[in-house]
């Protein structure tokens, strides 16, 4: 089913516009909340993914977080420069780079569960539990291929 046609499409009325605007608002608010930790919301995703063992290589992180490998490399460079993670080559396959949080990276990641829910809950305060669950369900449906 087509939901848009060239005649009915209006950029500010589109789902893409709303999702992008919501993303931008959330990033702005999250970045402000993370300022004292000297990381961005995108870097937060990397730190939490590494800390929870969801991903361990740049490729896995790129796929999980939906960013291209070039951007991922630049973000990892910044985190490494800040002393929050370290890279090492895999012994089994020298092409694979493994990532590990440093002690400083662990310390920063440890603070995130106290910060991130506050930002998200503030943005979701007008949602009922049912609406929140429906929003998550619909976003996941939107993301499914």
Automatic annotation (TrEMBL):
Keywords: DNA-binding, Transcription, Transcription regulation. PROSITE patterns: HTH_MARR_2 (PS50995). InterPro entries: HTH_MarR-typ, WH-like_DNA-bd_sf, WH_DNA-bd_sf. It comes from the Bacteria. Residues 1-144 form the HTH marR-type domain. PANTHER family: TRANSCRIPTIONAL REGULATOR, MARR, TRANSCRIPTIONAL REPRESSOR OF EMRAB OPERON. This is MarR family transcriptional regulator.
């Amino acid at each position: 089913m087509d939901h848009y046609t060239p005649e009915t499409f209006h950029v500010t009325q589109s789902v893409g516009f709303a999702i992008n605007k919501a993303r931008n608002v959330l990033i702005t608010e999250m970045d402000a909340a993370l300022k004292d930790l000297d990381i961005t919301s995108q870097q937060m995703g990397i730190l939490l993914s590494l800390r929870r063992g969801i991903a361990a290589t740049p490729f896995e992180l790129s796929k999980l977080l939906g960013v291209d490998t070039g951007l991922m490399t630049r973000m990892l460079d910044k985190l490494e420069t800040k002393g929050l993670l370290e890279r090492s080559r895999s012994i089994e396959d020298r092409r694979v780079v493994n990532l590990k949080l440093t002690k400083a990276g662990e310390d920063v990641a440890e603070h995130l569960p106290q910060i991130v829910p506050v930002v998200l809950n503030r943005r979701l305060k007008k949602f009922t539990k049912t609406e929140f669950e429906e929003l998550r369900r619909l976003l996941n449906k939107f993301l499914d291929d």
